[in-house]
Amino acid sequence: MDVKMKLWITIGLFFIFGLCNATLNLRVKRSIDLSATHPLIPDARLPKDVVPTNYDLNLAFDLGEEQKITAVMDMNLTFNEKADQISFHADRSLELDDRKITLLQYVNKTDGVILEKMPFRRADYMPKKNVFVIYLKDDYPKGTLSSLQIKYETYLWQGSEGLFKGNYQNDGQTYEYYATYMRPHNARKLFPCFDEPGFKVPFTVSISHPKNYVALFNTPVINSEDKENFVIDHFEKTPPMSSFTFGLILTQLQKYNYGNSEDSAITPINFWATKSEKPESEALIKETYKKTVAIIEFLQNYFSAKLPLSKLDLVGVPNFSPMRPADNWGLLIFKESELFKKTYYGLAQELAYQWLGSWVTPFWWSDAHINKALASFLASYTVIELDNGKEFNGKYPMTVLYSLYYEFSKRYPHSRITGMKQETTSFKTELVIRMLNYTLGSQTFKVGIRSFLANNHYGTFFGDDLWNHLTKQAHKDNMLDKKFIVADIANSWITKDRLPVVKITRNYKDKTAKVEQKVYLRERPHDVPEQDKMLWWVPLVIIREDSLDFSNSTPYVWMEKQREIQISNLPEEDKFIIANPEEIGPFPVNYDERNWELLSNYLQKEEGRSSIPTYTRAKLLHDAWNLAYAGDLSFATAFDMTMFMKYERNHIVWNPIFTFIDHIGRHIDMSKVYKKFETYVRVLLTPLYEELGEAKENEENWKNDLRSLSKTFLCRAGYKPCIEEAQKDFKVWMDSTDPDEGVPISNECICPVFKWGTMEEWEFGLQRVINFRKANVQSSRTYLLKTLAGCPVQHEKVERLLNITILDENGNFTENDIFLIFNMLSGGSSGYTSLFNFLSTNWVTIRQKFQNKTNLWDSLISSATGVFTTQEGYDMVRKLYDERKGEFGSAEHIIKKSLTNIKEEAKWSDENLPIIEKWLDKFLTTVNQEDTKFMG
């Protein structure tokens, strides 16, 4: 092909891809920029007046002492607007300057297209930014086509971003690898580019490397040049893709391939892993290959679109250093142990990104959480379909949902761990997507996703693009009223760091009900600003006792960001209703007392439990207890809802119980009601624990988990057989010839002994911490110290620990140990009361010791004063504050906050403890307390 023909082809490609990229400056609509935007993304955005249409990149690896990469980047550019400068991303380590730049313009002459120099005044980095700017001598009009060539050198990056080096051991040998991790904006560290997800253009790449390495890239090798000491691999041109999906690895791993004929329905798949002669290793790779094929086939069918790549490499690297896999398009790089897990979800999530993220890409990072949420939902959906959800063991979506309930019901969500905000926003968005899959119907949802994907092939999207395709399909299928749009529904959930609670109050005479929504607040006081302005689009899916049909998830009605609505045509007064079954939407539901009573009675019948699905039984239990804890429901009703648990054996329904026992127990353990509550716990859990019996070989994981949890909470509540068994094991350790050699018993034995056992047993544990050998596992010492502080109910044990660590300043305990002790003591009334008394008695000495240790002092005041929940506790703390006024120093604000919080908690206790005690008294009259096997 002659030069002129090449130029005309180039011009044609410019116009094709220039047209695609021209949409960049036309897409002015934006989804709401959420706080979920990646915190590391710089605010500076490149102008859209000059954009790339193609990258041609040549990388030459010198893996000698310098570990240097010599590179040439050729960019084809088009001017979308009149411009006098060209801006692109380049890390400062590339050390670009005008001597390394060749800038040419395509000029159409009468005898063909020629290349002419484009003169520029200077070229330099923008101050304090990794943006390089070429300042042209003249303005160039819209439609100008140019070629930019940059020669440069770069080096490997330390850590695990950009291009980095790693190594691993196999059969006694050390192997090195060189890999990229470009997400979210690390491509600029390897080559100059327009390093934003919205710029999607093809890459043509060649890599020069030593012969003893294999080079893998997004696309397959089309030809190789064999030189004396190295190989130059030329790779197939990529489809248009964002710079963050660029991936390469130089490796000495072994290739495994199990089929992939040319007429296969899926893209050819290659696995790369360490060389091994062990049959079980290859069997594991084969099993992962089968899972990969099953996932791809499922996703291709779901999307109605084959993966648009000519190959897919899955690489398992031992000691792969990034926290998560590198999900490059066509080249997935995992830590080897993660790739070859015997589970589906992680693999399904990464494969889903090949469609959602690589093929179809968020225009900017503000919509990345929607992409992540959709990929995660579809990965979960895939797992449920492929293995009937066995992998999740019933934990999806409950584990995520319950954690969101707790987080978003706080006065200040994410106040302690700000990094959680991005994750919880993605999780919440995933649950909103799950809600839409239910309420719009799975078929409508799937067709809407197919339409969304088909409309954005090789392109970018905003969040509203997804919602608009779902709206269009839902209207077409009559699954959504024509006046509703999905964007309004979704954004009402995604843009708030809160969740609603819905209350349904029935009028049994006229078969109607008042339905109200408000902000769900669990943590007191409920003084969240602007809560009265927060409203959601809430789907009310209602199940009636007189026509139980849990397969129908079509909303009875939508609450259109309304504070209150009326619904009618409800069942007779002796029939219950259930709203939001199976946790269709991420919100708890409250009812009037009569409806709760009907539900409680129904669940105590065998036919009732069998006719209400597992997730819904768990939801009813979870909602009742959390609403009671929040002050929105009587605790008598919440306790009544647990009465069916003596018949319940499903672990999914049991899981919330342990959280409730822990939360309520910690709150009331300073009161006289607590002993009665412990008896209730023993009565509740003993039948379950005894029925589970001893562990059996190859039993389901859930049985082992449920046995362990029930045993832990029974031991905590003083269940005699558990404590005697723990003491028996502990005595073996005490009688050993060298007790400091290690911890020879399971962790679950230690806390019961320290809580209910003798001072001698506890002192033995203390000496093991003091004499702990550095050669032993450090986590064992940490666990021992945590249980020494956090488990005892005897004040003398806590006082002994505080004397030796603070007053005696034993050199075996560090400041971190003391922080840990304070933290553990705040977990129960025995601990924080003992700590408070210790502080009050030794105020002068402790204040002097901590005068230059502000963090320790603040932690002490917080732990010793901030966890009381009764009026008695308030009076104790108030007395200390009055006596020591002006002496709290840096902790002055902490003690004041403690007093405010205790007043709120004391009010809660005054309101709820009499109700709890009355219910427990009535319940315990039906129980032979001698049969509860109490250790007391």
Protein model, in words:
This protein is an alpha+beta fold. Among the domains are: about 5-365, Immunoglobulin-like; about 790-935, Zincin-like fold (Alpha Horseshoe). Helices cover about 40% and strands about 20% of the residues. It contains 28 helices and 30 strands. An 8-stranded mixed sheet has the order 5-4-8-2-1-11-14-13, with helices on one face. The longest helix is centred in the C-terminal third of the chain and has 33 residues, at about 890-925. The chain is globular and about 105 Å long. The relative contact order is 0.05.
Topology:
Blueprint: H1 3-22, E1 50-62, E2 68-79, E3 83-89, E4 101-109, E5 112-117, E6 120-125, E7 131-140, E8 145-155, E9 162-170, E10 173-181, E11 203-210, E12 214-217, E13 221-226, E14 230-235, E15 248-251, E16 254-256, E17 269-273, H2 279-303, E18 312-317, E19 326-328, E20 331-335, H3 336-339, H4 345-355, E21 361-362, H5 368-387, H6 398-408, H7 420-439, H8 442-455, E22 460-461, H9 463-476, H10 486-494, E23 500-507, E24 512-519, E25 537-540, E26 542-544, E27 557-560, E28 564-567, E29 577-579, E30 589-591, H11 593-603, H12 606-611, H13 614-630, H14 635-640, H15 651-668, H16 674-692, H17 701-716, H18 720-734, H19 750-756, H20 759-770, H21 778-790, H22 795-807, H23 815-825, H24 829-841, H25 843-849, H26 854-865, H27 871-883, H28 892-924
Parallel strand pairs: 1-11, 17-18, 18-20, 21-22, 23-30
Antiparallel strand pairs: 1-2, 2-8, 3-7, 4-5, 4-8, 6-7, 9-10, 10-15, 11-14, 12-15, 13-14, 16-17, 19-20, 23-24, 24-28, 25-27, 26-29
Helix pairs in contact: 2-4, 2-5, 4-5, 5-7, 7-8, 7-10, 8-9, 13-15, 15-17, 16-17, 16-28, 18-19, 20-21, 21-23, 22-24, 23-26, 24-26, 26-28, 27-28
